[in-house]
Write a structure and sequence with these properties.
Layout lengths: L1 H20 L3 E2 L5 E2 L3 E2 L10 H9 L11 H14 L3 E5 L2 H12 L6 E5 L3 H5 L3 H4 L4 E5 L9 H7 L12 E7 L12 H13 L3 E6 L2 H8 L3 H4 L5 E5 L10 E5 L1 H13 L8 H14 L3 H16 L4 E2 L9 E6 L7 H10 L2 E2 L1 E2 L4 E5 L6 H19 L5
The structure holds pyridoxal-5'-phosphate (PLP).
The site of pyridoxal-5'-phosphate (PLP) has 11 residues, from helix 4.
Cofactor: pyridoxal 5'-phosphate
Pfam family, one: Beta_elim_lyase
Pathway: Amino-acid degradation; L-threonine degradation via aldolase pathway; acetaldehyde and glycine from L-threonine: step 1/1
Length: 389
C-alpha cells in the first residue's frame, strides 16, 4: 500500500516537473511564460467553438421590438429551469441586480436590507442609491454569507414610521456568496427569509450570480433553492462560461416592469439572440462541469494548505472559489505573490491585505491546478528567500 502511495506521488511529481518544463508562450506582460492559468475569476472564460458556431448561426430579429426568436427561446427555458413565470436577458449581473432592486422599490426612498459584504453593496458603484434612490440598510454578513435572522427582523421598518424612517420593501441575499468564499446559502435559510419577507409585506431578491454552483454543491434543484424568492439574477458569464449576459427571473408582472427599466438604463439590445445563443450552449454544455470545478477547488485548497506560510479554511471551500491566507508572520504580501505568479503565467487577484482569491472554471484543468500549486509553492520559497527584486 505504502509502495503504491509512493509510486502515485512520484508520478505526480514527474508530471509537475514536465508541466514546468513545458513549451513557452507569450504571457500578458509580454514576457515568455510556460502556460497561462487564469484564476482571477470565472468571468475570464473564452467562448468555446460550439458557442461561436451557435452565435454565427443564431436566428435573430429586433429584441427591443420583442421579435428575437433566440432570445425568446432562451428566456423561456431559463424561466422554466428557475421555476418562475418569466425571464429577461440583460447585459450584466450589475444591471440585473439594479433593475430587480428598482422594480421592488418603486417608491423613491424605499429601504433594502442586505449584507455589508455583498456584491450589490460593495461592488456595484452604489447604483441602487445613486440611480435607484434606494436606501441600503446593511447588516453584518456572517462568514457563511448569511445575516442573523433576528437582526433582519429587528431592522425592518414599517411605513407607519414614515415621518422619520425609510420604509423597508426588500431583502437581498447572495447565493453563492462571493466575498465569503463562494459559500452556499441553504434552502432552509432562504425559505425562512422568504417567510419573514412575506409576513412583513416585503419582497425577497437573490443575487444568484452563481446560483447553479450553489444548487449543485447543495444537491438541491435550482428551482427549489429559489422558490421563496420574488426575483433572482443569474449570471451566464461566470461559471457557466457564456461570453456576455445575465438573466432576471420572476413573475410576469415583475418582468414587464423590469423590461421597461432595462430600456431606461440602456440595456435593450437589438439582435441579442447572438448572445443568447452562446448562453444557451453554456447552459446545455457547462452546467454539469460546475461539479468538476468544485472538485478541483478542493484539490487546490488542500494543496495550498500543505504550503507553510499559507492557509485555507477548508470548510469555506464549498464551490469554485478558494481564498488563501498568508500567515501574518510572513514577509509575503498578496500583491507580491500575484506579481511573481504572473511571471509564471498564473493569474490571481489579491482579496485583502492578507489573502488572495483563486477561482476555478471549466477552462481550468486538473493539470492546470497542479501547475498553479507548483508555481505558488515556488513563489512562496522565492519571496521568502528574498530572491525577487
Ligand atoms: C455575486 C455577484 N453578483 C453580481 C456580479 C455582477 O456581475 P457583472 O460583472 O456581470 O456585472 C458579480 C460579478 O462578479 C458577482 O460576483
Amino acid at each position: 500500500m505504502r509502495c503504491l502511495h509512493r509510486l502515485v506521488k512520484s508520478i505526480v511529481l514527474v508530471k509537475e516537473a514536465l508541466l514546468i518544463l513545458g513549451s513557452k508562450t507569450q504571457g500578458r506582460t509580454g514576457k515568455m511564460v510556460r502556460r497561462t492559468v487564469d484564476l482571477r475569476s470565472d468571468t475570464v472564460t473564452k467562448p468555446t467553438e460550439t458557442m461561436r458556431v451557435a452565435m454565427a448561426n443564431a436566428e435573430v430579429d429586433d429584441d427591443v421590438l420583442g421579435a428575437d426568436p433566440t432570445a425568446h427561446r432562451f428566456e423561456s427555458e431559463m424561466a422554466k429551469i428557475m421555476g418562475k413565470e418569466a425571464a429577461l436577458f440583460v447585459p450584466s449581473g450589475t444591471m440585473a441586480n439594479l433593475i430587480s432592486v428598482m422594480v421592488h422599490c418603486e417608491v423613491r426612498g424605499s429601504e433594502v436590507i442586505l449584507g455589508d459584504n455583498c456584491h450589490i453593496h460593495v461592488y456595484e458603484n452604489g447604483g441602487i442609491s445613486t440611480i435607484g434612490g434606494v436606501h441600503p440598510r446593511t447588516l453584518k454578513n456572517k462568514s457563511d454569507g448569511t445575516m442573523d435572522i433576528a437582526e433582519i427582523e429587528a431592522a425592518i421598518r414599517h411605513p407607519d414610521g414614515e415621518l422619520y424612517f425609510p420604509s423597508t420593501r426588500l431583502i437581498c441575499l447572495e447565493n453563492t456568496h462571493a466575498n465569503c468564499g463562494g459559500r452556499c446559502i441553504s434552502v432552509e435559510y432562504t425559505d425562512k427569509i422568504g417567510e419573514i419577507a412575506k409576513q412583513h409585506g416585503l419582497k425577497l431578491h437573490i443575487d444568484g450570480a452563481r446560483i447553479f454552483n450553489a444548487s449543485i454543491a447543495l444537491g438541491v434543484p435550482v428551482h427549489r433553492l429559489v422558490q421563496a424568492a420574488d426575483s433572482v439574477s443569474v449570471c451566464l458569464s461566470k461559471g457557466l462560461g457564456a461570453p456576455v449576459g445575465s438573466v432576471i427571473v420572476g413573475s410576469r408582472s415583475f418582468i414587464t416592469k423590469a423590461k421597461r427599466l432595462r430600456k431606461t438604463l440602456g440595456g435593450g439590445m437589438r439582435q441579442v439572440g447572438v448572445l443568447c445563443a452562446a448562453a444557451h450552449v453554456a447552459l446545455r454544455e457547462n452546467l454539469e462541469k460546475l461539479e468538476e470545478d468544485h472538485q478541483r477547488a478542493k484539490i487546490l485548497a488542500d494543496g495550498l494548505n500543505q504550503i507553510k506560510q499559507l492557509s485555507v479554511n477548508m470548510t469555506s471551500t464549498e464551490t469554485n472559489m478558494v481564498y488563501f491566507n498568508i500567515l501574518e508572520s510572513s514577509c509575503i504580501s498578496p500583491e507580491k505573490i500575484c506579481e511573481v505568479l504572473e511571471e509564471h503565467g498564473v493569474l490571481a487577484m489579491p482579496a485583502s491585505a492578507t489573502s488572495v482569491r483563486l477561482v476555478l472554471h471549466h477552462q481550468i484543468s486538473e493539470s492546470d491546478v497542479h501547475y498553479a500549486l507548483t508555481c505558488i509553492k515556488q513563489a512562496v520559497d522565492q519571496i521568502t528567500a528574498g530572491s525577487t527584486k
